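Lab notebook, page 48
Experiment: co-folding of the full assembly
Goal: obtain a model of how the components sit together before planning crosslinking
Operator: M.T.
Materials (sequences as entered):
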Amino acid sequence: MDGAEVRRIASLARLELADAEVDRFASQLTAILGYFEKLREVATEGVPPASHPPELKGPVRPDVAAPWPDPAGLVNLSRGAEGEFFRVPRVLE
Amino acid sequence: MARLPPELTRSARAIADAVRSRKVSARDVADHYLERAARHDGTVHAFLHLDPAAIRAEADAVDRRVAAGDASGALLGVPVAIKDNLCTRGVPTTCASKILADYRPPYDATVVARIRAAGGVVFGKTNLDEFAMGASTENSGYGTTRNPRDLARVPGGSSGGSAAAVAAGFAPLALGSDTGGSVRQPASLCGVVGLRPTYGLVSRYGLIAFASSLDQVGPLALNVDDTMLLMEVIGGHDPRDSTSRKVDLAPLAKAPAPTLAGLKVGVPAEYKVEGVEPEVRAAVERCEQLLVKAGARLVPLALPLTPYAIPTYYLVVTSEASSNLARFDGVRYGPRADARELSHMYGLTRAQGFGDEVKRRIMLGTFALSAGYFDAYYKKSLQVRQRILQEFTEAFTKCDFVLGPTAPTAAFPIGEKASDPVQMYLCDVFTAPAPLAGLPALSIPCGTTKGGLPIGAQLQGPACSDFRMLRVARELEKLLALDLVPCDPASAPAPTNGGASRGR
Amino acid sequence: MAAETKTAFEPVIGLEVHCQLATKTKLFCGCEAGFGGQPNSRICPICTAQPGSLPVLDDEALNLAITVGLALSCTIRAKTKFDRKNYFYPDLPKGYQISQYDEPLCEHGFLEFEVEKGATKRARVLRVHMEEDAGKALHPEGASSSLVDLNRAGVPLVEIVGMPDLASPAEASAYLQALRRLLRFAGVSECDMEKGSLRCDANVSIRPVGETKLGTKVEIKNINSFRNVERALVFEIARQTEAMQSGGKIVQETRSFRDTEGTTVSMRVKESADDYRYFPDPDLPVFEIDPARVERLRKALPESFLVKRARYRDAWGLTEYDARVLTEEPATARFFEAVVAAGLPPKAAANWVQGEVLGWLTESKRELETLQTTPADLVDLVKMAERGELSHLAAKKVLRQMLDTGAKAAAAAQSLDLLQIRDASSLGATVDEVLQQEAKIVGDYRGGKETALNALLGRVMRATKGKGDPNLIKELLLQKLGPAGPAK
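Observation: model returned without errors.
Model output:
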């Protein structure tokens, strides 16, 4: 992974890195990815990719309203709470 | 001086019984542990947050409950230290990260609510590797925790604070979380018991997510019996967690104890590799011998996918983590950087708030999921994961449980592995496979090195065999006949590497 | 310069429609899902993405999404999963949207719609999938901040992706109208573009007439009304045609429709934005769709408006026009069918509902749903007229009174004093009076002028203020006068 790739990834992940960091991460990530290459040794033809044990099935919940008792409290957790809203700096369109 | 007699400080169950029968007050229990923490935690730094007044108030409430005639509650008056990635309402919960500095959740994690309902006293928030990413607690944004057995060494991670708190007698019980070994490995390094439950047996609601398909909350205690006690309280279906198993815990918890005679214990060849320290190997072999003497049969196993568990694990967790941590942007909670444009605010907030290991993993995960690389990395890792599950399923047709070391080494010095991420990842070689397969695994103390450092043995079992496995472990624990008591950090060798490391 | 023959191009259009499902709660949490409300009043730890929160799927959202698929003749998958679509925006609290990527709930359906009177076309529907809505980010003019309201974050949506089967802006508009009507008749959503419960993006490309390969497609967003669908498409097609005809190329991009100018403009290309890094959501295991659930929903699927229209026409003999009007909205069809069920023959019911009730609604700017007058009330009124208690004209006046005030038929007729006078003796007395007063007209009648009878009838009606039963009056006049011509 080179510096340009690190910058691309960091941008996708919204991580503003300093130049020195970019180089340091580039070499560390290259080493780690090199280690991951080991997986090529494992045969996976026809093996289904799985995240959960097969016996786990997605549950549903009844369509009954359960309002949260303190919505204002949730807004006030934000450092940018402004009255009823969350305030954020403007998106540059 | 300790307020509680040794028969209580070595058994959480005994504490609950004593509070229930009013032989001791919950307040006295709390004061005992608060005093110990006050005396020793300055050196150990197991806690990120400890509020004596709040704890005393909770203990007093338990005493009032008992006085009013309510003696129900399996954990009556028992202090439980909580890893700081579990939400505790109104109490700072930081995941040991600057990005959640002063975050006070508006709700309790389900496991915390269950502990309270059972009469337990929530006893502080313990230190961890930032966002549970690490194997030494050195990645904490608020300083590392020291191993109470040897203050110059790491307690393991990521639940290092919880393991250290139990080992040092700051609390009889603790909650940790295990994604790739984060309960078991610190348990092993600190000389306590740690359980990673079957995936889905314990609710993740309120556990701040690191890798959702692997995370599980797990209990830590001085002995197996106490571990079981805490597991019975926190486990069981939670409708708030879609990955929670619809399994009734009660019959599992009440299953008859298996006898060791005739038990088939799998011993994989891949667990006796070069990287395992000789003293660790010897301690685990002693377990094998004790089991055989009690009538168990050793079954040699081949688990050839074992070396691939770590790269698989790291691809899966970093991918899921890169997405789970996207919500930390300063908009709705946590500190936010001063910036006049939105993207800049996101970029700066996250760059300032996350430590290096977290950044590395977010970038790895973002990369593994990105267009053009998805098949080669993420999809491939899920396929290998599936094969690892198949390998275990096959193994458990030949044996009841698998035995091996929890970690390849005993506790290593603070700073030794911190600068080499891959070296740190290799600590998980024995603990990463079970989470990938969703299986339960348990670490129990099985001896020490000549230098007095604890060594842990790990049992792994089929899905939902948690309680059977705990019962087998309890038998093994009896055979090992170790003295499972809290240690006094003051008597551990003093650190020789200068001032406390700040963990980054 | 000699006039060159310019290549003729034809447009190819496919619409992507988002529809908010009419559930009580959000897709993955128990917050209320309705429209409006004070900002950030319908929020909870889950839809504000508090650390440690987890999603749990709403049962009714699954039902409604399957219903949409069935209404569009799609195949419903036996297993479905959710995926995360990862990107950063302040109205997206988790930093990802829970959606469906490669295994959508419903696939390979179609929408049959009318392109012009009598001619229908089938446009293919590629897929229908479930996803959660984002919140709202408000950008006050001139301010350096934006404000975020998360009430809408987590509301359940289905995305209906149409294949590029639409051949003109008019066709696209017809498709959207038909889709809206279909969804409303299926009861899954209000489909109100103004409230945002129906949103539409368009994919447009052009190609030389006769060419089968598709040209470069451009996505148009920010179309917020039915009218604007056609306006945006007309502009975009002209823009692309102009570009191609002057030797240029079409850039694959996303453009935004500008309402006031009626134009589309290129949206700022978000830096490396389109790598959404889709992967299966690890917080949600695979969902098994019980075939029994699908069957139950299939049986319960309300009749589509096209089937209704045909039934009104063919089984009930209504005119094409009446059938159309009565199937414009589900509420109208429901009301009409209830009137028939309460005892009016369909044609009569159609006349009264379509001719009178709907007319009144338009005039009074009211919605059918707010009407106090029930189908049963209307039938009562019509039966009164049939029994002769009201003249036809009077009945219309009484109906107006009922609609205005919510009064029942008998009470309204009373209060307007419009009940027909059918008492022969009192009418007879009035007839006698009139015959005395109108000697000249009587004389005309005696002179053989038959039409004088109508004039006398009119006079009696006037004397009774229009309440006299005209048939009875005529009878009485004939009784008293005998046939036209000299008295016998």
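Interpretation: Chain C touches chain A through 50 residues (CB under 8 Å).
Next step: discuss with group before ordering constructs.
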